[in-house]
Design brief:
Structural class: alpha+beta
Distance between the termini: 24 Å
CATH topology of the largest domain: D-amino Acid Aminotransferase, Chain A, domain 1
Oligomer: single chain
Bound molecules: cytidine-5'-monophosphate
Helix content: 25-40%
Number of domains: 2
CATH class of the largest domain: Alpha Beta
Number of strands: 13
Number of helices: 6
Radius of gyration: 17 Å
Largest sheet: 6 strands, antiparallel
Shape: globular
Strand content: 35-45%
Length: about 240
């Protein structure tokens, strides 16, 4: 497999073509951004940590029967993935209230949400990823009703797998965002799962162990990501 030209550079990852039209290389960079790119920094080792973290989680999900685009690690900061036709809608599940939910509804952080909530957001930086719903997604042909039902089913399946994985390691999976795409008529999990796209708290102390450390200027961002990984049994370089 040969890495070819860059196809797309996102805020923290880049996608490269390969000599195989059905496979891309995902490069995890050290760039870190929050608040729609308003706050930006380079955090040493983040690309490596998130690449390994994502590989570990994707393998766990695949083993539990969730189809993912992940095919394997290529280097400390690169992974091989299947090409997907991406659906421009983000799926967010929340087990505990935090972040935009608290701002939107005026509720306090840390409330248990039972059953966990499921929200959809349109991927659109200029509009700051507005919240949407299934009716809008179908009417605007972002996805079919069947595709949305599958995305919801898989998003909750991911919650079952990961909630217990984090719980066993002394952590609480507060919320997370997933993105899906189409491949060979199937709905497949794409993008990444890392502490950049979820909230994780220590179960006892409720210490924040995710990107809120960067958003809120709490410090030790990558050291804490590595601690999350180590508790899960991930080996970093
Ligand atoms: O900001 P909000 O509270 O809606 O985020 C919910 C979860 O989804 C958080 O874990 C956040 O990190 C993640 N998220 C993300 N990318 C976005 C929006 C949210 O990773 N564009």
């Amino acid at each position: 497999m040969e890495k070819r030209e860059e196809l797309y550079a996102g805020k923290a990852k880049s996608v490269y073509r390969t000599d195989d039209p059905e496979r891309f290389v995902l490069v995890f960079r050290d760039d870190t951004s929050a608040f729609d790119g308003e706050k930006k920094e380079q955090l040493n080792r983040k690309g490596m940590v998130n690449n390994r973290f994502n590989a570990f989680i994707m393998e766990k999900l695949e083993a539990a029967g969730v189809p993912t685009h992940f095919e394997g690690l290529l280097s400390p900061t690169e992974s091989l993935v299947k090409k997907l036709d991406m659906i421009p809608v983000e799926c967010v599940v929340r087990n505990v209230s935090a972040g935009s939910l608290c701002r939107r509804l005026g509720v306090e952080e840390g409330l248990n949400l039972n059953p966990p909530t499921f929200e959809l957001f349109l991927k659109n930086d200029e509009l700051h990823d507005p919240m949407v719903n299934e009716s809008l997604a179908v009417s605007f042909s972002w996805a079919t009703a069947d595709e949305l039902a599958k995305m919801k089913e898989l998003t909750y399946q991911v919650n079952d797998v990961l909630k217990s994985l984090f719980d066993d390691a002394g952590m609480l999976l507060v919320d997370y965002k997933l993105e899906f795409g189409r491949s060979g008529g199937q709905i497949v999990l794409g993008d990444e799962f890392s502490p950049d796209g979820c909230r994780i708290w220590d179960k006892e102390t409720r210490k924040k162990m995710d990107k809120d450390r960067f958003r809120q200027g709490l410090g030790d961002v990558i050291e804490t990501y590595e601690e999350v990984g180590r508790r899960l049994g991930i080996q970093f370089d």
